[in-house]
Amino acid sequence: MHVFDNTVLPPKQIASIKVGEQPGWITFSRDGRWAWPSTGDVIDVKSKKIEHTLTGEDGGEVHSEKIVEIIWIDGVPVWVGDQFGVGRKGEKATP
After folding, report:
1. How far are the Cα atoms of 8, 18, 80 from residue 69, in angstroms, in the given order?
2. Cys-Cys crosslink for 34: which of 29, 55, 77, 93, Cβ 3.0 to 4.6 Å?
């Protein structure tokens, strides 16, 4: 997976991250800290290093383009985002 600086023209490649296979999709966390390519890797955006790899209940690799991020405060979901970068915020629900 290649990382580019798009603040310059033309964009300049500044890093490469070796992932298990070519990702078909890359999703970023709401705060921009994490990148989740469809390879199942969890990448720290700042260090550009793989910090975790997702596995299923049998310990096998998990690959998916479908991502849901949920932000919880005091046990209540207050924000939900998906792989399209669409965030949803609702009224605080009673747990």
Report:
1. 31, 24, 6
2. 29
